């Protein structure tokens, strides 16, 4: 092989580039002159391959040069294989072998990393040429150039396809696959049915908050009327529409899909209550006043999905003592709502702060409204409800939210 010498700028040049006078100086200069030796570091003896590699890739070069190659083969169980260089290095002190040994210890990120996962036959890799303990050349700091990313992309795409199929299944379930049943009976002593129910039709609601998935929703409700049917009927007709109208205003919030839906439910309850009271306040005398004085509980269940994690979600919102219970396949039941009774400490405290009274009357705890001139004392067995104007004007003793 041709001899190389190190030029003064730190690069390796061929012997033909060095003037004859310089050659003579390099070969005949006695070792006793350290200044000349420092300027022209002599290459090590070729028999010591490790020393040759150390010389060839020493710190005197301007940075460590990375080479490129393709994986000839790699046994992931045993942890070693061979790389074929893409380009032969410039002729010099070291003739690179046709195949370069690679060991798992030299893979960046180790056996658990993405570079190791990408070591398949034909994979493009970059590496630093180094040596093993026995002085033989090997690849060091091995990185996969694109194959690991491709594998990760392939995994992500597969997961995306699976997630997309699940998302579509959930949407179809909510839009057309749910079955609902109901049964009603007029209570003892009642002349007519004061209760109403809502079996919502599934609808598309699009993306919600930070969730990029298009969602669908189905809304259900039970409304237990008292003092007449006007309030329960009003709420059954208006609440769902008001919730979804509120959802339009909430959709672009920087919040999760669940937070967006919770806010829409709260806003829908408030708007429905406000609308009923506005209408009721216009009716001030006679039969119309009696019609407007009715009230209603509400227990709603909202199914929506997919959420950020492709799940089906259930949100329950209630006012009053209508109760939501989840029946499980194993026969067990899970209570999903809280009965808003006047004797609950938090409810009682709120009622009394607003000037109301809580007492037992007729076998139940009730919110007692002091009788005014021309009125009789009245009591309400729930702490929260829609309607019930007498308990909300002028002071909001009973609340819908």
From TrEMBL:
Major subcellular site: membrane
Occurrences of domain PPM-type phosphatase (ranges): 179-401
SMART domains: PP2Cc
InterPro entries for this protein: CSP_DNA-bd, NA-bd_OB-fold, PP2C, PP2C_BS, PPM-type-like_dom_sf, PPM-type_phosphatase-like_dom
GO CC annotation: membrane
Residue span(s) of domain CSD: 66-144
Domain of life (superkingdom): Eukaryota
Membrane topology: Peripheral membrane protein
Gene3D superfamilies: Nucleic acid-binding proteins (2.40.50.140), PPM-type phosphatase domain (3.60.40.10)
Spans traversing the lipid bilayer: none
Stretch forming the signal peptide: none
Disordered, as annotated region: 1-43
Keywords in alphabetical order: Hydrolase, Metal-binding, Protein phosphatase
GO molecular function: metal ion binding; nucleic acid binding; protein serine/threonine phosphatase activity
Listed PROSITE patterns: CSD_2 (PS51857), PPM_1 (PS01032), PPM_2 (PS51746)
Protein name in the entry: Protein-serine/threonine phosphatase
Lineage of the species this protein comes from: Eukaryota, Sar, Alveolata, Dinophyceae, Suessiales
